[in-house]
Amino acid sequence: MAHAAQVGLQDATSPIMEELITFHDHALMIIFLICFLVLYALFLTLTTKLTNTNISDAQEMETVWTILPAIILVLIALPSLRILYMTDEINDPSLTIKSIGHQWYWTYEYTDYGGLIFNSYMLPPLFLEPGDLRLLDVDNRVVLPIEAPIRMMITSQDVLHSWAVPTLGLKTDAVPGRLNQTTFTATRPGVYYGQCSEICGANHSFMPIVLELIPLKIFEMGPVFTL
Amino acid sequence: MAAPPEPGEPEERKLLGFLDVENTPCARHSILYGSLGSVVAGFGHFLFTSRIRRSCDVGVGGFILVTLGCWFHCRYNYAKQRIQERIAREEIKKKILYEGTHLDPERKHNGSSSN
């Protein structure tokens, strides 16, 4: 989860998120250099003694400031498209979970190996135990195995919601009447938090998502099915 | 990047308020080499031409080009290293999993070399 006043990305828990962090660093370096150049140009503009108001054209400069941004955009677009296509790779998921958004809770369905369906409500402040996270912890977590490709089918029963888990690099809209799909593979065990990311009413901020990722051996013993 | 800095870990230092040079791989290295390149290029130009403003322009241009060049070079090597680490991690996992079984690659290799 994020720490207080965190602005940057959370540590990656999936290969796609690692790629996204790498791309973010790459884009940020380019942005930094452009900002540096613009600040320098601003400084020159403010301190110049040249005040000729009759300049009519500057062909060379115009050529440079057309071609250079095009090159910069290509440098940003190529890694971006690479990651975009990587997210759409077909990887034969081991498990399919359905996630249904409601006002204001999530319903999860494990229908691959049985008919497990449960709701996941945010824990109200009065019900928090010491150590629980306010506005983040839920009564029933989504328990999943690590190092196995997992398919999430996401939809909504009423209004638009969005199922997001930043550390996995996931954000998928839950649209009523439509089934959206996202896949991921978690690389390390732990408890990971996300929050609804599409405005959906009064309690939009109070329907978090909590994933509990555990080793496959322990998942196979069936802790999720003892609810 | 997720947890607040622990004591002993490098503090966040953000250039222009957003580029975290301490925690972004290759950033500090690229910025330092870029600064060096900028000083060398700008000062060298000034020594030859004695033009201050133009030397500053050359310095800024040198900073951008050297930083970009170091950045791409370092990131390319970093990506190669990450891929090698991932392969090594997978091979170690496979070795632990398959050691002593018929799928053990070392057993297959020793079997074929003794034949």
Automatic annotation (TrEMBL), chain A:
Catalysis performed (reactions): 4 Fe(II)-[cytochrome c] + O2 + 8 H(+)(in) = 4 Fe(III)-[cytochrome c] + 2 H2O + 4 H(+)(out)
Swiss-Prot/TrEMBL cofactor(s): Cu cation
One of the GO BP terms on file: electron transport chain
Domain of life per record: Eukaryota
Cytochrome oxidase subunit II copper A binding domain residues: 92-225
Cofactor note: Binds a copper A center.
One MF term in the entry's GO annotations: oxidoreductase activity
GO cellular component: mitochondrial inner membrane
Membrane-spanning residues: 27-46, 66-85
Cellular localisation: Mitochondrion inner membrane
Topology within the bilayer: Multi-pass membrane protein
Alphabetical keyword list: Copper, Electron transport, Magnesium, Membrane, Metal-binding, Mitochondrion, Mitochondrion inner membrane, Respiratory chain, Translocase, Transmembrane, Transmembrane helix, Transport
Pfam families in the record: COX2, COX2_TM
Presence of keyword RNA-binding: no
Keyword flag Transmembrane: yes
Domain spans labelled Cytochrome oxidase subunit II transmembrane region profile: 1-91
Chief place of localization: mitochondrion
Record's function text: Component of the cytochrome c oxidase, the last enzyme in the mitochondrial electron transport chain which drives oxidative phosphorylation. The respiratory chain contains 3 multisubunit complexes succinate dehydrogenase (complex II, CII), ubiquinol-cytochrome c oxidoreductase (cytochrome b-c1 complex, complex III, CIII) and cytochrome c oxidase (complex IV, CIV), that cooperate to transfer electrons derived from NADH and succinate to molecular oxygen, creating an electrochemical gradient over the inner membrane that drives transmembrane transport and the ATP synthase.
Similarity annotation: Belongs to the cytochrome c oxidase subunit 2 family.
Record's protein name: Cytochrome c oxidase subunit 2
